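Re: the pair you flagged

First of the two:
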Amino acid sequence: MTHLHADDGFLEYYQFEHDPFLGRGSSFKFFAAKRRPVLVELHHLARYSKLMLVVTGPEGSGKTVLRQALVASSKEPVTNIVIAPSSTTDAAAMLQHVSAALGLHGADIAGVLRHIEQMLITGQEVHVIVDNAECLDESALLFLQRIAQGVNDACARVFVFSDSTICPLLKKVADNADLHHVIALEPLDQQEVCEYLEQRLVAAGQQLEIFTDDQINAIYAESQGWPGQVNSVAKNLLLAQMRHTSAVSKSASIIPFKHIAILVVLSVALTFAWFMQTSEPESKSDSVSNIDAVIIEPAINPVEAVVDSGKTVTLDLPLLDQPFEPVTREPLAQALSAEDDEHFSAVEESAPTVEPVIEQTQAISVPTPVSTPVPISTPAPKQSASVQPKEVITASKVAAVPLAQKSSTVAKAQPVVKPAVTLPKVVPATTGLSGSAGESQWYKQQARTRYTLQVFGTRTESTAQAFVKQNSSQYHYFRKLHQGQVLFVVTFGSFADRASAQAAIATLPEKIRNDKPWPRTFLSIQQELR
């Protein structure tokens, strides 16, 4: 298995107390699933048989961790001789290792067996434990088989950890005799991989929610359930995610030189366009300087504008005695949407989405007014502000009257019944970012080693409360933080061990079983509550 180094950047980024994916650290905890039964079987066979015990599994299957647990769990007075060869090893090298560990330098096999017999008389056993046994040749295996059989009852207990390539060589050495017992390690299933990751992360001060469901599925698929591969794949995934986030933040904070050059060119062009626009009104004012005021008489009929040249021009202008009412062309209402609740399990609940019904108001089209500008040689007198019926309107103002305003005013003169517009009722989305702590006191009163079934999680506390009230008293919920947001998690029951919790799933209603509830310890929940 590739050695995984814990750099400070990695620990600080994910707020780990230590690297959760090291092979074995100070806070290492043996993972019991599919490994504790093997450990119990090894101790049992070592007590009642002389067989050479062989544990096989591929790289990353946990053979080294199991070997360490075997040494640590030896309760009787035992002398453990651990040998882990890194290259091809023969019988002479194995004899030298064993005799040196027993303090018998230069002894032969007979001398080693006599010494083991003397140790057994004093009540002390000898365990010879060989890791990486695929490096042993045929003579080394013959040596181990010899001291495992011993003389009479004087023998050593021999444990061998290797990959499956050792099996054909063992059959050859035993010559079809029943001299060894092989135990093949099994990979973890997907649920056990989740529990294995959770155990590692909780020991490092984090929670399983640091991974998404898709990431956990990818870890299981790539590692095929072997614990060592799970460690490697999980850490590589977190490192890749950290590097990607850092690269995106750096690229977002640095503006390329070519983009700066483009911004400079655009600013120069906009400045030039602004100067051109400021010079255009002056040239236009020169061209219309001979056009003066036009006096408009408010009337119901089309207005006649009289100019100094003696000509009369008829203009279809808005009626000035009516209040100005522009035609609204923007949407009358906007669609409302409620953000869906994010669920920790398969349960999905979403707030109702209001879909507004909008009826558009048709505006009455009015022919475009035709106005003929007539040059006026003499300036028109200024109008007094106290004259109410008349208003001074320049030719530029006449040209600037929007068509929408004219259409609206003409429509106002002729009463038009507007279709009713149904506006949506705004339903605010429930955020679920606040609420009580749930039944945290009940969870804190449970024994840390007991198990419960996690049913589902929701962002809305009312959803969790309603579910608990509508079902039996075995359902409870608590409040936690998930990815920076509040999550309310519903659980079922309190069980003595994981097997009891797993068996209780079959008793739940089919609708709840479809959400795939899974067992977890009260220790992990109490850590989340803290």
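Second of the two:
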Amino acid sequence: MTFADLVLFNGNIITMNPKTPSAQAIAIKGNRILYVGSDREVEQYVDERTRVIYLDGKTVMPGFIDTHMHVVDYGRMLTWLDLQKVVSIREIQSQLIERIKGVNSSGWILGRALDSDGLLEKRLPTCQELDAVVPDNPVVLYCQSGQVCVVNSKALEVAKISQQNGAGIERDTAGKPTGVLRDQATNLVWHVIPEPTQQELYNATELALKKIVQVGITSVQWIVLSEVEVAIIKKLVETNGLPLRVYLIVPTNLLDIALQNLKQLENDRFKLGGAIIFVDGYLASRTAALCESYSDTSTDQGKLVCQQNEGIVLADKIQNAGLQLIIHAVGDRAIHEALSIIQNSSRNFMVPRPRIEQAAVLNQQLLCCIKELDVTVSIQPCVIASEFSVWSVEKHLGEKRAFWLFPVKALFNSGILVSAGSDCPMEPLNPLRGVEAAIKRGGEHKVSVFEALQMYTEFAAQTVSEFGDKGSIEQGKFADLVVLSKNPTSVAVEELVDVFVCFVVFNGDVCCSKS
């Protein structure tokens, strides 16, 4: 008789396994699930050496899988001033006064998660209000949603913004910059912020990984943006420093470097899984490639940044290397181009199916083509909310195209496999915020809570051909679990954000316990 190392009793277990959708107890041996069933059935796996935890009806789910995250950037932002809970401009000033005490004379002060709606003044601070407490150091405070930041006069000076004209630079009645920058204008200051050292980024990444696990994410599909990340990941793997499972996705310009440095390091916590081709940009910056012009302009259709012939060569290289082909395509024209690349490249059936990242502006014809080519789609539900609430999608795309923006239910109904991620740090990390956003899409596109959870569990695992090991609670799979305070499928939508993680089981070990 094999006895368990850990047993969870008296739980509300949502297995995400259609054959046995619910259970009471789980027995774990080593890093794998030994048995799933009733309390009575699992009792037989307990001896004097078994650790037993009574859940008192708490909900257990497979550990969440985030299919789109920028881990190093998230870590970098965690080192910034956290403004998420500030309630007034005066409180922002107080936090800046405290932060400046630890900054040298030329050092930058960076902040994140600023929300003007949460401030008493119901507006962003001006550069003059920031200057009043930090006149000599550059200050940049990024907002919680949308591509928006507010800066002080020193930052305006360093970035030479006062001398520039262009969209996104907010000005007062006298024509002077107020300090508020929007959309592409935020890049003017971002490009002059000094880069952290590699050690600073490594330390920040370790912090980010801990925070990721704390919200119940036990697997992440990590999209790399820079060469320094390859060195950071290499060190994390070599020192057994990964507290979760990583499926790494690299841009094509780093493919050779990643293959040379990382492929041989693969283990049950790390896999160099895919490579991504960027076909267009983003809606907010008008760089997403559309078949017809943006509705509020007569000529602007965005731009393709990768032509079909180039894309086919890159797609063949990716699949020949034994990696999943992933294509970033936002606009309908870009999605059509991505599907043409997939159709005309040499398919490697030994790797996960090709996948389109974002796939924002769709139509019925594109849905049929995605299904026919057996392509999967990875979306970021919180981005949906941002496009409607911050970018005002109906104004920029028109009612017809706005209807087809991220049509999650239509994707489901077409039989297309859809997974979900956060796009953290650009959007909130918590998977339940993504579940909430997916549900609130509303109308004909509304999905159920359970369907939204599928995108963060079983569908996310299937997208990268890892459902044999994770994505559901079944015998033989990794013991990667999240224990929640309430059942997310039975609370009101507005209460989803109040559901918290009690503890996480990763690789058979209890971690991130609230007790």
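The chain has a mean pLDDT of 95.

-B.
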